[in-house]
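Obj.: predict assembly geometry.
Materials: sequence records (below).
Method: joint structure prediction, all chains together.
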Amino acid sequence: MSKRIDVKDLNVYYGDFLAVEDVSINIEAKSVTAFIGPSGCGKSTFLRTLNRMHEVIPGARVEGEVLLDGDNLYGPGVDPVTVRSQIGMVFQRPNPFPTMSIRDNVLAGVKLNNKKISKGEADVLVERSLKGANLWNEVKDRLEKPGSGLSGGQQQRLCIARAIAVEPQVILMDEPCSALDPISTLAIEDLINELKDQYTVVIVTHNMQQAARVSDKTAFFNIAGTGKPGKLIEYGDTHTIFSNPVQKATEDYVSGRFG
Amino acid sequence: MTATSLTSSQGAGRTGDKVFSGAALAAGCLILAVLFGVALFLVVQAIPALTAPADKIQGGQGFFAYIWPIVIGTLIAAVIALVIATPVAIGVALFISHFAPRRLASGLGYVVDLLAAIPSVVYGAWGAAFLAKQISPAYGWLAENMGWLPIFQGPASTTGKTILTAGIVLSVMVLPIITSLSREIFLQTPKLHEEAALALGATRWEMIKMAVLPFARPGIISAIMLGLGRALGETMAVALVLSSGALTASLIQSGNQTIAAEIALNFPEASGIKVSTLIAAGLVLFVITLAVNMIARWVITRHKEFSGAN
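Observations (raw structure tokens):
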């Protein structure tokens, strides 16, 4: 249930503006890969190109290839809708559907792909997904209550439950803890550790300790200056990036000397 | 930074505050006073008609027998207008907010807003002089082929001046109201929720069903209710288009009448008890509109827990 991602020579543009330049990266299946870097360096933009969510922004386009187990996401005839059903995403701010109950939130994606799901199957899936997101014990008595009534951290785990309910190959997380308190952050980090047993997880984070704690590999992105494109500076084992990086810029960043 | 700086008041800013809050309070009170004044006027003036002996009222069978056919007529016209206008308006609003390229969207939005700027008497003239003639063959067809339905029972009006035509004209008139309000609501859908749906693998239409429409539901209901308010109260268009008569179930025969048109057509020549009767009819219209608005409120608040406001 998890696939690897290989990116070859990817450029991302907003209109004529080159936002991310020439990224090539190999993301292992069943691992956690963290993207770190200063604000505006294009790491979130790049993350979005991994499931074609950047296309939501008018004028955004890419050049290059993103291979999901060898299949190009940008190949002719590939439907972004199919891509996104295989590569799930969790956002910076928790975004459960406010008009849906907790249960319906979990089932939202499943009902898109498979309209006729029996109540029994749905119950099993809801329980499995919520357990998978470490949320089941907290919400099992109020599944019919609105998801927006949960705390921020619970909402974010609900969003993770919603993402894993469709059994994606890859889960992308765009700064999933930046709106959460430290305890909720810890709960999400624990969850990420468990998720990598089944899924390929890619996480963008501003928090270097978080990257060090949760990821197997880390990619450092940087930008030469305002108006310049973001670039992948260094990519390697998290341990190496944080203790013994090759590039000077990486060392400066992880040791807190800039950014 | 002495102690006095805490206690001495900043004259100008304070005065501004007081003037503004006073003005806001006055405006709020004025609305209530006007509403109360209108309601009081309607009730006081309507009492003679409501208490008069049955044979004094037009028709000779009392106020109730006089009013209920035109209440039904009013509702029929308004319902026709909403049934036609709502789906079109929501479709247009969705097209403008989520499907059209940006340049086309702003142009189209402008055109829809222009529809609201056309005076109702012009709509009435258009409906009576153009639409009614053009549409009467269709009524003939309906009477022939769908005549077994009571609402399409023949013989169809040859002039086309029927309650259905009036309803169609009304639907064009309420269309811009529902469209522009719905469009505003659709545009306010949080990007977060739209992206949540898209990231789950929703198509654009599925995203709209999942994120946009549920979010916009209370707004759509409000928009429809505002449209209904206009459809119920619209006078000139109906007065010009409809060849009025007794209440009939068929929408394609001449007949039926709405309260607003009944008042407008009869008021200039009315005197005595007749004036009172017409004002009582106005009171009934007022009550219907009020009831409609309260029901709409109730529908909206019933789902507050799931509205996303919390």
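Conclusions so far: The radius of gyration of chain B is 25 Å.
To do: check interface contacts against the pulldown list.
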